[in-house]
Design brief:
Elements lengths: L5 E5 L4 H17 L4 E6 L2 H9 L1 H10 E5 L10 H23 L3 E5 L9 H6 L4 E4 L8 H10 L13 E4 L5 H4 L7 E4 L7 H18 L11 E5 L15 H15 L5 E4 L6 H12 L6 E3 L4 H5 L2 E6 L5 H7 L4 E5 L3 H7 L11 E4 L2 H13 L21
Parallel strand pairs: 1-2, 1-4, 2-3, 4-5, 5-6, 6-7, 8-9, 8-11, 9-10, 11-12, 12-13
Helix pairs in contact: 1-3, 6-13, 9-14
């Protein structure tokens, strides 16, 4: 990349893409401080979720900027508002197109440039456009099978834009797509293993965790536990469609019985709205004797002090936690046909240390044992990512 190049990252409407790319951008920025980096989102809820995730957002502000380019919910009514938005968007797009033609921009996207009108940018700067996998650990064949059993999924259709195909797992369809045989393909380690990302989190750890625990009299050195919350709506994964709220209560009950002395950090699901987050917090706080902290901190930062982490279904955050040797517990209630497909275990067994399919007594016993046994943590620095992106023109 030329000196003074600007990298424009087009995020999709899920937080996971941002979570995947930011550690990689931190690594790149450390090597090339002359680069300008701007992240773009068109989804208001995604924009707000990123800003709530204070570690990700502060990391973005450290290396570049985040901009929202969609229409806000309060602007969706009215012809005048619609016209203004369209005019502003067209002017912005034409400005990017002009800069792309001059060779001053590099684009990274997860699918946004595959569709018009943004596809124009990828066409104008194809040799400086990267199509990237949105999750750092990919979707394993078993996970994909379970997903298809939950509900039918759309097929891989639109041909991706970009000369460079950058992914993190062998199972990513782009790597085997016959239409992309002439593209330059790169498989990288999960970005959350970046040495620069680890150094940044370690330097911020005490401040952020201290702020999150303010007023809770929490001794971080004594350890915490982490509860990665699921979206609480109906779901085809479970034995009953509306079971997530019940599993949440059962998990809290087991925790209160097994290890009430251990502070519990609840990490809300990014899809939760403000009212849902407040309801979850109220339900958790009703259990006397528990120290509850609702936090949007990055899972790797929480994992630095965690005895264990748990969730009511597999979460991609489990892969991050396992990278820092935190035991993970999936307490759930898979539907019978899902259990048959998984052989009675998790859909991602490589990232789930303990799988409990709706057995409250077994969960209590397991949590007691995990809290009583402080697992040694390997704090050695992780290797940084190599420089394949830095070699791009």
């Amino acid at each position: 990349m030329k000196r003074g190049t600007t990298i424009i990252v087009f995020l999709n409407n899920k937080l996971i893409a941002c979570d995947t790319v930011v550690p990689l951008l931190v690594d790149i920025a450390a090597r090339r401080p002359d680069l300008r980096i701007h992240l773009i989102t068109f989804d208001e809820r995604t924009h707000e979720a990123i800003k709530r995730n204070i570690v990700l957002y502060d990391a973005i502000c450290l290396i570049g900027s985040l901009a929202f380019r969609g229409r806000r919910n309060d602007e969706r009514r009215g012809v005048a508002s619609s016209i203004r938005h369209r005019v502003k968007s067209a002017a912005w797009l034409m400005g990017l197109a002009a800069r792309a033609l001059l060779g001053r921009l590099m684009f990274v996207h997860f699918k946004e440039l595959n569709e018009w009108p943004l596809r124009l940018l990828g066409k104008l700067a194809s040799h400086r456009t990267v199509y990237m996998e949105s999750t750092a650990v990919g979707y394993a064949p078993l996970e994909r099978k379970v997903s298809a059993l939950m509900r039918p999924r759309g097929k891989w259709s639109q041909k991706p834009v970009g000369r460079y195909i950058v992914g993190f797992s062998d199972n990513w369809p782009a790597f085997s797509d016959a239409r992309l045989t002439r593209r330059i393909k790169m498989k990288l380690p999960p970005p959350f293993l970046s040495g620069e990302w680890h150094k940044l989190l370690q330097s911020w750890s005490r401040k952020y965790l201290g702020d999150a625990a303010t007023g809770r009299a929490i001794d971080l050195d004594a350890g915490i536990a982490v509860f990665m919350l699921s979206w609480m709506g109906p779901n085809g994964l479970l034995s009953e469609r509306d079971l997530f709220p019940v599993l949440f209560e059962e998990t809290l009950d087991a925790y209160a019985d097994a290890c009430p002395q251990l502070p519990l950090f609840l990490k809300p699901h990014p899809a939760m709205r403000s009212a849902e987050r407040l309801e979850i917090e109220n339900r958790a706080q009703h259990r006397r004797g528990l120290k509850i902290v609702v936090s949007d901190l990055h899972p790797m930062m929480l994992g630095q002090h965690a005895h264990f982490a748990m969730g009511n279904c597999y979460s991609t955050t489990f892969s991050v936690l396992r990278a820092v040797d935190v035991p993970t517990v999936e307490y759930t209630s898979y539907a019978r046909h899902i259990l048959e497909a998984t052989g009675g275990g998790s859909m991602r067994p490589e990232f789930v240390s303990h799988f409990v399919n709706r057995d409250p007594l077994a969960l209590r016993k397991l949590l007691f044992e995990l809290a009583a046994t402080r697992t040694a943590r390997r704090q050695a620095a992780r290797p940084g990512i190599s420089e394949p992106l830095l070699a791009l023109p």
